[in-house]
Amino acid sequence: MNPSPIHVVKLNLYKYSLPLPLLRFIFIPKLPFSSSSLSLSSSSSSLQTLDQSQTNSISSSLFHLLPQTQNPNNIVNLICSNLKQHNSNLALLQTEVKALLPHLGTQEVSRVLLRCQSDSSTALSFFNWVKNDLGLRPSTQNYCIVVHTLAWSRKFSQAMKFLCELVELVKDDLPSEDVFKNLVLCTEDCNWDPVVFDMLVKAYLRMGRVREGLISFRKMLRVGFVPTVIASNCLLNGLLKLNCIDRCWEVYEEMERFGIAPNLYTFNILTHVLCKDGDTGKVNKFLEKMEEEGFDPDIVTYNTLISSYCRKGRLDDAFYLYKIMYRRGVVPDLVSYTALMNGLCKEGRVREAHQLFHRMVHRGLNPDIVTYNTLIHGYCKEGKMQESRSLLHGMIWNGISPDSFTCWVLVEGYGKEGKLLSALNLVVELQRFRVSISQDIYCYLIAALCQENRPFAAKNLLERMTRDGHRPELEIYNELIKSFCHCDCIAEAIRLKTEMVDKEIKPNLVTYGAVIDCLSGLGRSLEGESLVGEMVASGMLPDLAICRALFNGYCRENDIDKAQSLLSFFAKEFQIHDTESFNALIRITGGKGDITRSLEIQDMMLKMGLLPNPLTCKYVIDGLWKSRRVDSASLVK
Known about the structure:
mainly alpha
């Protein structure tokens, strides 16, 4: 007869290199009862990964003269006796052994836990008391003993809690510790259940550490312990989520090699692996193998395959499976219909998807938010907003509240059709139904209104957005300010800029650029230049666009002196050398016949390291020619 899994582990422990720690203590008495000890010597796999308590257990020939309640060597006996007599009254225990608590170390904790293993409640209370009330940090060995004790007593949820805690502790503070090895070591001294090793794999997966879970799974196989199919499925699912397709097949092969019988859940996970791998051609063979193992594909299997076929655009195959389901007595559910509708909508066959929707309802299935969103999105992509709106009313009538995706696709659909008013009316209508409007939708509508040069309507929407509890961001303020500036509503733009500062939103280069450009265009370049000083004071430097905006403003105001000094100032203070603006200045002065000034500006360019380009030369020559014509005309007179 084959040995049970427990016996298999016991037989193979000797194949697994697990040296036990060797503890040696040498004590030299001092006056009258102090002692010193040599440090603990242990192998690299020692369970003592955490510091011992403030002092190690003391052994001395003189301690037998002390009363039992004061003898450090008697601390384990005292604790166990008190726990038994006082039914885990830990407050009383702490009072009675208070003088000996400095001598309570992780080794003593392990000895107490081992003596309490037949009473898991007492062991658990003592462990929590040490960890929480005394503030001592348990060792890996302490954790392993309490986990074994709880699992042996069938308290699996509590055992899992401490396993997860231990896994996290080892990850953060003791990366060299091997939890699996320590659990195996503890089986020599305490009651244990093989399920603990399954739980370790699950604990790693629960903590998102799939790699460590895979390593523990393989260690179990190496020492001769066969994991359950449940632990194997958890591992497969974890690997699938990380897209470790090859690892999934390796684990499945190991399951077959070690006789771990798969179940339906195993095959459903592997079906998903096949679909994710893109190798849907192997699906039929895999389904045949699944049936050979005695498992008929269920609704999960079919839905996985249908969804995969629809994503790949293989709708004929998807509908073939849909028909096969009925023949095999598997009734399609909401997931099946929604996947098929989604596939149809992606190919622009929204009418067919809607017909399938009606067929589903006729067969007694109630559509959910995903089903409605699939159809609404399909109609919106085709610009059929009336049909989308009808579906929206239908879902609300059926008691399904639209989510953020529903609202977004409808608003975006109206936006693409250029029907902003309809989109705004939709928002108002949705709010009447107490549907929350997301900040993204508000920002989309505000930006769209700004692009249509309707900044006042956009500002009203901004105020509504703020009332709804959303906090506008810098980008949306910039859109509004640019729109107001484009409409020459500079007072509103400046008011919004002030509002930003009041709300602790710092204006950026885009904000200042829009306002300065507008001021310069309105003949208020001096006010624009004062904003440059504000920018610099806030730690922001102007750019070339701001320089040109102010320069063009002064030129329009016919203040050539100010325009020239501005170019000189920006070149000196901000290293902004703008050949185009210098050329414009030469063109203006040359056009007025002031060739002397044009040449002075050209010399200024050369001193700044700017080389005149062909346009510079052209404007100088034009100026010289015009100056000559003016002089000739004056001579004729």
